[in-house]
């Protein structure tokens, strides 16, 4: 590759990655703000049901991703890669901006969650069309001996999009007032909308960059020769050989990759916040540090796959996840378990206050109990009881919230544990774009690789936080029961991948 070619490929990677990163950012701020959104768009009478409803809305965006893959994949194989992922970027940016404008449940009732659900579905459709285009575009510009290395930069965008979304949320949360408590209160009230609204600026910049991009050279050649597919859907799924490749890609690679991705990055954060009860900021910065340390390994494993093949790197990542998830999550739990701590009883603080509920004679009694431990951990329990003025009226169930501020030693130990999980993500995810591109011919590549990717990653993976959280609410005695879902799915994928996936690198993608 000469200097001009080298500059050209980095320009292609930069333009593709910027747009894809922004789409992932748009997609993930919803999940990163699940607990806040639950209180804004759903009735507050049952916080657990509200959180599950929010996670279900979050999951809906994943479920429609395969449909987006079909719609936009077909467009990409007919009109070209460039204009198709310009369109997905506009739909994604518009939907995200609109979520920031939707009035809350207290203003418009059930219309609020319905509108949010519809916008979430549009986000899912757009993302379904984005990734396949970006990965295909970069791969079709890459030399054969560096395809894994160059496409792995696209693979970093999903994790970096999550990283940026967490960073913007934390910065906004602490910038709304000089008083930290007031700033957090403002964020929970209206400030959560800001990360959604600023997205429109990022999208406009990305559209400008992408407008300057040229069409993929392989697709342009096909178009000049009049060899583009007339019906990519039919050629992808009605042709027996192609359909077999689609099914192998799904059940032998992307299904396991999806659950490892969402367990290591999303369920880990949800578990630390909602099961371990770690403080909002700490639960997010633990993930931020872990992602920061692990992200370079996407490129390491992508580059390694050019030398030893894609298959075994991905399958070893799944194998490690299957056998170590239970001890890794068990360690997160035991690190924050107060049974393993020694309380400093003389430092315990209990404060109570009573406030009248507006337009009623009832009142709310708020009790805040702060408990300190010898290792530096501080636990805050906030209990809110409703005091009814009417004699004999049944007392409502108290609302109890627990938040643990863990010590520095425990904090960095948890960063290490989550780093290991994200490392597995880099193993299964780093080489997969090159793997998928090499499976399918140019004229139906966008369609064929998008569908298995988005079913595996979007549906099997995207449902992980919802199903895992649901399992923990059903089997309350076992806080690790939610891990059964990703472990079983990854194990099935590992067996199929080991038996049927080839480790051979297909150097010629000009077919």
Automatic annotation (TrEMBL):
Does the UniProt entry include the keyword Cell membrane? yes
User: How is the protein disposed in the membrane?
Assistant: Multi-pass membrane protein
Q: Please give the superkingdom of this protein's source.
A: Bacteria
Give the Gene Ontology MF terms in alphabetical order: transmembrane transporter activity
Q: Does the UniProt entry include the keyword Transport?
A: yes
Q: Where is the Major facilitator superfamily (MFS) profile domain?
A: 12-509
Known SUPFAM superfamilies for this protein? Answer: MFS general substrate transporter
| Chain ranges passing through the membrane | 21-42, 48-71, 83-102, 108-128, 149-170, 190-209, 246-266, 286-305, 312-333, 411-437, 458-476, 482-501
GO cellular component terms listed in the entry, alphabetical order = plasma membrane
Q: Where in the cell is it found?
A: Cell membrane
Entry keywords, A to Z: Cell membrane, Membrane, Transmembrane, Transmembrane helix, Transport
Q: Which InterPro entries does the record associate with it?
A: MFS_dom, MFS_sugar_transport-like, MFS_trans_sf, Sugar_transporter_CS
One Pfam family cited in the UniProt record for this chain: Sugar_tr
Q: What is its main location?
A: membrane
User: What name goes with this protein?
Assistant: MHS family MFS transporter
**Organism of origin:** Panacibacter ginsenosidivorans
Q: Supply the source organism's classification.
A: Bacteria, Pseudomonadati, Bacteroidota, Chitinophagia, Chitinophagales
